[in-house]
Amino acid sequence: MKNYISTIIFTLAFIVSGSITAAAQAKLETVKIKTSAECDMCKAKIEKEVGLTKGVKKATLDITTRELTVIYNPSKTTVAKIKTVISNAGYDADEVKANNRAQKKLPDCCQPGAGNGKCDTVK
User: Fold this and answer.
1) Which three-class secondary structure state does DSSP give residue 68?
2) What CATH topology corresponds to 29-110?
3) Across the 123 residues of the chain, what is the mean pLDDT of every consecutive 10-residue run?
4) Which of 34, 52, 88, 107 has the smallest number of CB atoms closer than 10 Å to its CB?
5) Is residue 118 helix, strand or coil?
6) How far is C-alpha 64 from the geometric centre of its chain's CA atoms?
């Protein structure tokens, strides 16, 4: 009888720990988003803003191609939300145009068409 109860307890513990492990290891996805980034300051701003978004694990912008690679948890955020964050920071994100007010507040080197790839400072 004692062995039977121990077996049941062990089996239940195994099932519960497996469920917790599966929930903790949610599948991450990767998306690439074309941006209107112009320089290193844009890179820093976009990576910071997107990186602070709930569910985003990593955001890396290649300034040469203007492509942002985002690793995220789809159960906590969506691609649409990520694009909105980029837009609200003042940059285009694929088909989502930059928030006009936010874009006007960007430094000169970050304005569309500046295209020099360099800024005096990175904030």
Assistant:
1) strand
2) Alpha-Beta Plaits (3.30.70)
3) 60 54 72 95 96 97 96 97 98 96 92 68 46
4) 52
5) coil
6) 19
Spatial distance between the Cα atoms of 120 and 123, rounded to a whole number of angstroms: 10
Q: Is 107 exposed, middle or buried (0-12, 13-18, 19+ CB in 10 A)?
A: middle
Give the C-alpha distances (Å, rounded to integers) separating 9 from 5, 21, 91, 98, 119.
6, 18, 55, 56, 63
Indicate the pTM of the whole model. 0.75
Close Cβ partners of 55 (under 8 Å, ≥ 6 residues apart): 72, 73, 74, 75, 76, 77
Structure-block tokens of residue 86? 């980029």
Alpha-carbon distance of 99 to 5, in angstroms, equals 62
